[in-house]
């Protein structure tokens, strides 16, 4: 009997939720692997990660964060050692054969690689195989051992809740992309968050603002039981690691698509550029487009009276909220104040008039439709 958790492709599935359901056979297999293979794999993976740390630490000493020095024989040697160690680590974790289709373009041709879908911390595999720079949250730098390895590849750090940090991140991406090959290629996951791979959510524009050619890269995990997806609601980080290391083999496919050169119109309109690349990648993946974004995760996961139960209603909510102008121009301080007011009202019902006063908006047909989504 097949697992009920095969590859996600169902239209209308909430992209921020991942559920695992096991057959009796799978439960027995995981139980046996947990007391036999899992401890050995965990020990080997931990050892290899610790082995990589001194190489990354030594290479990072005295290095400038704002400029790239020419590679010496010493740094090239460290780079080679780290690639070998990290590939061995993934092999010990069950990623024995990683299928690569297409060819990665040279840094001189394409400064930015756009990767999707972003669904797991195992998406670090193509990063460690190529040693490309990435865009990652600032908190990643403080992760023991792994933070040093991340710092080695010269990432662009972003502090998600700081609007000014986001602007600086875009400027840094643009500066590196236009450096004429001085900096390493940047591998960007433009979705900006992890999903369950049931569709491609809206791309952030950061990778497309420079208006330079990009190379799309799509990732696939064609495993029967999806143990790798790490979403906002679903198995936690350690449970994913445990279940994945309990699989006999974890297949993965990396496909480099042809270079996408933007038109003059796309250069002037990064959002259009991003959406056209997203369409191209969705076609290669054979998954639908989902007009949700990182900013929709909270409402999609909320519980109680503020819960929107299905993805079609969530999409309708997104459309109506954009029409009301509640997306653009709302800074973090405004959102924090509204969240504080909402917490005080938790558990209480709101009439349409109260809802209007809460949002400081007039009662309109659009607002009435938004209210009805919560009042179902």
Automatic annotation (TrEMBL):
Pathway(s): Phospholipid metabolism; Lipid metabolism
Domain Phospholipid/glycerol acyltransferase, first and last residues per copy: 112-222
InterPro entries, A to Z: LPCAT1-like (IPR045252), Plipid/glycerol_acylTrfase (IPR002123)
GO CC, alphabetical: endoplasmic reticulum; membrane
Main localization, broad class: membrane
Pfam families from the UniProt entry: Acyltransferase
CDD domains xref list: LPLAT_LPCAT1-like
Transmembrane segments: 30-53
Compartment annotation: Membrane
BP term (GO), one: phospholipid biosynthetic process
UniProt keyword annotations, A-Z: Acyltransferase, Lipid biosynthesis, Lipid metabolism, Membrane, Phospholipid biosynthesis, Phospholipid metabolism, Transferase, Transmembrane, Transmembrane helix
GO molecular function annotations of the record: 1-acylglycerophosphocholine O-acyltransferase activity; lysophosphatidic acid acyltransferase activity
PANTHER family: LYSOPHOSPHATIDYLCHOLINE ACYLTRANSFERASE 1 (PTHR23063:SF57), PHOSPHOLIPID ACYLTRANSFERASE (PTHR23063)
Protein family: Belongs to the 1-acyl-sn-glycerol-3-phosphate acyltransferase family.
Name of this chain's protein: Phospholipid/glycerol acyltransferase domain-containing protein
Organism: Zoarces viviparus
């Amino acid at each position: 009997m097949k697992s009920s958790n095969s590859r996600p492709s169902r239209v209308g599935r909430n992209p921020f939720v991942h559920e695992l359901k096991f057959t009796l056979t799978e439960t027995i297999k995981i139980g046996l692997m947990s007391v036999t293979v899992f401890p050995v794999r965990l020990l080997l993976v931990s050892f290899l990660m610790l082995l990589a740390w001194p190489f990354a630490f030594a290479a990072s000493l005295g290095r400038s964060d704002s400029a790239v020095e020419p590679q010496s024989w010493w740094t090239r040697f460290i780079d080679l050692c780290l690639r070998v160690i990290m590939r061995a680590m993934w092999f010990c974790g069950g990623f024995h054969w990683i299928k690569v289709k297409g060819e990665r373009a040279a840094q001189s041709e394409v400064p930015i690689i756009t990767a999707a879908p972003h669904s797991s911390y195992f998406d670090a595999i193509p990063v460690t195989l190529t040693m490309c720079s990435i865009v990652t949250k600032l908190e990643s730098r403080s992760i023991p051992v792994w933070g040093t390895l991340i710092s080695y590849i010269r990432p662009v750090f972003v502090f998600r809740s700081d609007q000014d940090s986001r602007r600086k991140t875009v400027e840094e991406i643009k500066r590196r992309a236009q450096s004429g090959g001085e900096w390493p290629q940047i591998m960007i996951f433009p979705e900006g968050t992890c999903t369950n791979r049931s569709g491609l959510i809206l791309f952030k524009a950061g990778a497309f603002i420079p208006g330079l050619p990009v190379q799309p890269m799509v990732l696939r995990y064609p495993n029967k039981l999806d143990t790798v997806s790490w979403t906002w609601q679903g198995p936690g980080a350690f449970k994913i690691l445990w279940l994945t290391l309990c699989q006999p083999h974890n297949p993965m496919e990396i496909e480099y698509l042809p270079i996408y050169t933007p038109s003059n119109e796309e250069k002037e309109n990064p959002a259009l550029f991003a959406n056209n690349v997203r369409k191209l990648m969705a076609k290669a993946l054979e998954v639908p487009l989902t007009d949700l974004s990182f900013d929709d995760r909270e409402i999609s996961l909320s519980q109680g009276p503020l819960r929107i139960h299905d993805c079609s209603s969530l999409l309708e909510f997104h459309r109506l909220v954009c029409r009301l102008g509640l997306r653009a121009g709302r800074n973090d301080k405004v959102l924090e104040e509204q969240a504080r007011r909402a917490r005080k009202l938790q558990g209480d019902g709101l009439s349409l008039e109260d809802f209007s006063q809460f949002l400081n908006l007039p009662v309109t047909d659009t607002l009435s439709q938004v209210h009805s989504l919560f009042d179902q």
